[in-house]
Amino acid sequence: MNAISRSTKPAKRARAETAPFVINVVLPIKGHPVLVDDAINSIAKEIDAGTINRLIVVNDGCSYLETLQSLGAWQLILGDKIRVGHYINGGLSAARNRGIEHALACDPDLDAIFLLDADNMLAPDAGATMQAMLANHPRADWFYPDFDFFGQQGHYITERDYNLLFHAQVNLCEAGSLVRRRILDAGVRFDEGMRQGYEDWDFWLSAAQKGFRGHSVAQPLQLYRKRPVSMLSESHDADAALRQHIVNKHQWLFNVPKMLALESQLFPRFAVIEGSTGIAYLQTDPMQAQEITLDELERMIMAHLADPYANHAPPYVVFLRDGVSARLRAASMLHSFFWNTERRRARGEAGTDFDLFYLESSDAGHRIATNAHNDDRLADGVALDLITLRRLLDESETGDLLRLDHLPSPFNAAGWSVDLEKMVPLNLVAESAQELMRRFMLRLSRSRYLPAVDMQWEWRQVGGAVDKSRSVHIPRRAADGGVVFPLLKQAGTQDVGFVLPIFDFGGVEKVVASIAREFAENGYRCHLFVISDRPIHPDDWTLKSFSTINWMADSSAIDWTGQEFVGTAEPRLQTH
Prior knowledge:
Elements: E1 23-29, H1 36-49, E2 54-60, H2 65-78, E3 82-87, H3 92-106, E4 112-115, E5 121-122, H4 126-136, E6 142-144, E7 147-151, E8 154-158, H5 164-169, E9 178-180, H6 181-185, H7 199-209, E10 214-216, E11 222-226, H8 231-237, H9 239-249, H10 256-266, E12 270-274, E13 279-283, E14 290-293, H11 294-306, E15 316-320, H12 324-330, H13 334-346, E16 354-362, E17 367-370, E18 381-385, H14 386-395, H15 398-402, E19 413-421, H16 433-445, H17 450-453, E20 461-464, H18 474-477, E21 495-500, H19 507-521, E22 525-530, E23 546-551, E24 564-565, E25 568-569
Parallel strand pairs: 1-2, 1-4, 2-3, 6-10, 7-11, 8-20, 12-15, 16-19, 21-22, 22-23
Antiparallel strand pairs: 4-9, 5-11, 6-9, 7-8, 12-13, 13-14, 15-18, 16-18, 17-19, 24-25
């Protein structure tokens, strides 16, 4: 292993002017003797322009004579503006880490480094762009570019607004990015045990764990050479194992409460229109809703339909007759309603356009019934997803939309209902959920934003960007694919769930209620989950300690005739 070598000859290229930021490029080399000249030549142009300070080359055990000859020639040309280190092969992560250490050691006033692979090239004027990024975005910690490929042609955009939720779904940031020194000073380095790929994803998540955040350059900083066989293509072949390694290593991020909080901050799951107030509510947790006008919701939805990779809209739209949420909140069932709404849409029948919901008053106790059809009156709630909404706009005639609030409906709908003990009946003079839906759908069908939906907003293809409607699916990955209960954690409060197949007057239920009371009195939030569609018949006191009361309304939960395990039959319950 050799230390960084220095040329004794003076540099033949002088910086045109002193750049305000000191940027070094780190270039690992292993097995690209024919390509490395292109990479170094592109860097030399930026050094000559005065925007890049120095090139740090790490020869990671490349055995080709041409590599040594090329590096020797470039040392004669660039002089002290290039430093070359020769090492026994340690892998890409080790090579980058060595380059980082050399870059810090060579220039104590270093501001940032750019990581370039030897088969790629800096884009024209990339150094000037880096200088502008550092100057104009002082709070950003690293800057990731768009992709322009050569060899195999391609032009891809990346995520325009960096966010941690989508970075958990896919690596948003190419290794060829500009990294501020403060990330390196915090000790963030590449994992040298990761030699099959995705080490750059791990690097960025490690930086994010320490509170650092990325920023989109929205243009290329490098020209990316795309070849049929590369380390990246091999990484894709090993995708499942590498992803699992990432998940296991970054449990600070890949857990349900963290992902749910990230989703709620920027990508609320539901848009709720209740009554004729002209107001919509954006929410993941129904107890933490944000008010917007229907005009704002219309614009949000149309912007998402026009460019789903740049604009978010809630993936579920729910319409409620006035007073529904207050009744459900009083019965501690508001979370359960939205949870079941999403579960029904996620597991719904093929071809179902939307779900109808009925809120009934009963003296028999609490009851939930799925796939109930009520032809006597219009629905108290309607739920549909954005995919269905777009299809209804595309395929439905205005006449069909006008008949949304008529029975029988021209659309394929499934119904369900909840009976609440001693509930004050809803005012049926208030507009039904179908009427509210009809009015809003007609608004969208006549929207002034409609021409934007069919326009092309990016000339580059979608590559590293993520469809914003995927936001709801990312927390599910941390829950083994199940629909995540829409309850945000409260600081300093712990949650306890009690799961029962039935909740009646039996001794087990009273024991559970007593335990819940003790937990609640000691500051816990308690939640009751009944995993069947059997009615709840509570005493007056047994439900008071539960912050939420929830049904997994699946009749198969109490059907114990499923596949046997060691001689005992399992329930037929579908857990997701």
